[in-house]
Design goal:
EC number: 2.7.7.65
Strand content: 15-25%
CATH topology of the largest domain: Rhopdopsin 7-helix transmembrane proteins
Distance between the termini: 66 Å
Shape: rod-shaped
Oligomer: single chain
Helix content: 40-55%
Number of strands: 16
Pfam families: 7TMR-DISM_7TM, GGDEF
GO molecular function: diguanylate cyclase activity
Number of helices: 15
Largest sheet: 6 strands, antiparallel
Number of domains: 3
CATH architecture of the largest domain: Up-down Bundle
CATH class of the largest domain: Mainly Alpha
Keywords: Membrane, Signal, Transmembrane, Transmembrane helix
InterPro entries: 7TMR_DISM_rcpt_extracell_dom1, Diguanylate_Cyclase, GGDEF_dom, Nucleotide_cyclase, Rev_trsase/Diguanyl_cyclase
Amino acid sequence: MGKWHWPSGPAWRWLPALGMALLLLGPAVHAATPLNGAWREVQAGDTPQRVLQDYRHGDLRSFDPGQLQHFPVQGLGAWVVLQAQPPGALAGHVLTVNPPPPGKVALYDAYGTAVTLALDDFTAPSHAHGRLAWSLGDDPHGAGLVLLRFEPGAGAVAPASFALLSASEFLRLDARWLVFASACFAVMLAMALMALCIAPMLRDATFAWYAGFLLCYAFIQGTRSGFLFHPLEMAWLAGLSPVATSVAIGLSMAFAALFAVRFCELRRFAPLLRAPAMALAVGMLLVTVMRACGFKPLQNIGQLLIDPLLILGSVLLGVASLVAAIRGSRHAWFFLFGWMPLLALTALWSAEISGTLAGARWLGNASLAAGALEALVLSFGLADHALSMRRTHASVQVLADHDALTNVLNRRAWREAVEETLRAHVGQPMTLLFLDLDHFKILNDHQGHAAGDRALVAVADALRHELRPLDRLGRYGGEEFVALLHGTPQEPATQVAIRLCRRVHRLEIPLDNEGGRLSVSIGLAMHHPNETMDSWIERADQAMYMAKLDGRNRVQVSGTRPKAVRSRQPLKVVE
């Protein structure tokens, strides 16, 4: 088990401040006019007058309008009667329903005429944001009474609370919520788009799964809060939001599971939990297909399965990320701190649906803030992930491009570097040196291959220190080295080659016990316009063989005839 540690860095110092800023953007507590409330289910033959009469007789069930109350929206719906305290406080006020229910809600006047509102209704001249709202010009039923009807819609129950606000207070609340929601959605969409752009650049599906989860979560919150309908006016979603939201819930959990598997490195740090996480992703995809198909029995089964899988999946991913974090996954900490708020809100949302949390009116805004906060936290984690990938890629690239023994460029990487230099500096003089160690086989035979390896390392270091940083040194194979002298004409290049010969000879690496020392023969070739790489190397190679035939430990320039060299002379340049 690896040693676990907390993530560190500048981002973690100001993430709490970001979360606090999102919460502060949320709607403030407002001063609402006190309300009394009562309700009952709609019965066949009901009229507004009959419902109000039953209310006055005390035949309706009382509830606190300031707390969440669950109204059945199956069958014929539910009647709700609200009474302002004091009774004359209706005129000039605005009645709001929050959170907005999935179906339609109608407000009746004294003549039985209904003003119907819904999240996906585009017929009304004006709409509130994040809630339903009616402007009350007078007291339609007297005694401060307001009559509402929750019409049949999607779902079994519709939790809602009510508030009676002055017009100015409502406008402040509405504008504040709009700014808050816009900021949250902007953060989520910006982080998702960033991930979608980075995914193909890094060729990493982790970013794509993350973007998919964020987009689905933003869609869920956009339909539940009505933000996609007002102010975005996506009329084409009207009537489709219940099924579309259910599908988005399934996809979001599937994307979250796929993202957690890769991002938290479950294969490495929590292998036993990787299979359940992958099974969760597949299961949520199947449930999503069931909800999206047109076959009613399968749709019903999918609807029954989606909520339990959502809760179990949230717990599973939380546990998996915690185990991976404790075992040493740095990125799992990012996932854990981003996911835990959503995990807690999922549990609270389930409790709210069951009627346990009647006072949790803040859950909708908290879900928006948690989505934005998670987007920020995980984006920091993805940035760290991208940097880790870049460092790993750079390390792998260095290993792939460099000779493992001498740490100079290998043959492939050297050719690529030279070709790139030739393309970038057309017209500049380029000189190629082909170097071959003299009598290297004698050294290996008399002192062993370990001594030969040490000699190659020493020679490579000597050559590297003699050349400039912009020159390209590589090991061509065995005891052969190649060097590109950037922007160097023939005469200065010849002087450089002479220094290399002397530098290797001064290493005083013994060949055997008879006093012989390791030396190098060098072939030199200038690059000709439109010459191929292979032809250039071949000319330098032939010049090197001519230097060996002429006595070794010397420099031979390509295209010239060698001159006689006296045997006592340790170094000779042949031109």
